[in-house]
Amino acid sequence: MKLRRPAFLLAGLLSFFAARASAQDSSSSTAEKPAATVAAPSGPTAALRDFLLAACTQSQGEFVRFLTARNKESFARLTPTARVAFMKRFVLLNEPGKATVTSNPAGRPTVQCETPDVTTEMQIGGAEIRENLAFLPIELRDAADSTGITVRRVTLGLVREAGEWKLLSLGVLFLDLPSLEAEWDQEEISPNESSALDGLKKIAEAIETYRKLYTRLPESLSNLGPARSGQANAQAANLVDSDLASGMKNGYAFRYVILGGSSLGAQARFELSATPLTYGRTGTRSFFRDAGGALHAADHQGAVGSEIDPKIK
Question: How far is Cα 214 from Cα 260, in angstroms, rounded to an integer?
């Protein structure tokens, strides 16, 4: 069983809501519901089916069609990593899958999401519709397990918004992407800042290596990047990866400034800085490497730091 559960919020809720979903529709996968509670093909069942298909293939354009207007706006502001992580929560798989749909004799769909490592099946039960709200139980299992031990159940809620069905809740947990957005930003800031510091060190080392190889400082960070063809040269020394050479990596922008040599023959020196691309989302601290090689950090609301900022030990 290779379903990726611990990393995702959905996995923690599956067992918790199993009894609730089962009590609502203990025969959802096999028995016919009364006509009043079976969704039409264009109703919430079809919407949830297409939502799961989009989550399986990690198709962001399709996925956002089934988010409420408020959640759709927040989803668009999330970093690419956070958007993918959110979609993964609904299929419990780490990578995009091949999605197919089958139907049981009652016409209820089963979405199958196939990856090289594991295939999950998500069987949608009968919809319980209350005016503009709909609740649908889902049974999720590993397709390779015929014992039924791996079955997990959860109920998803949908709301009719502007005439279309949108995902509203996971069990009794209502989707609130604006709140999750802030939490995910905080989770990403620390690794982004660590990456920015590491990037400054790598760039500084690459510049000194470049100086030894070509007896001068590079004109720009792009001169440190990968050679497109042939061997490394002064225009592409192959000393840092393409992201650092472009001046942007992991939510930070890098700046390189040459300080001219003196008339007495002193070597030219340089300064480096790293600032968050989106302050408060990709990082809060600005980092600065002075001409002497010391590293500094401070919160400048996204502006460039300086050598008067506190030193980093």
Answer: 17
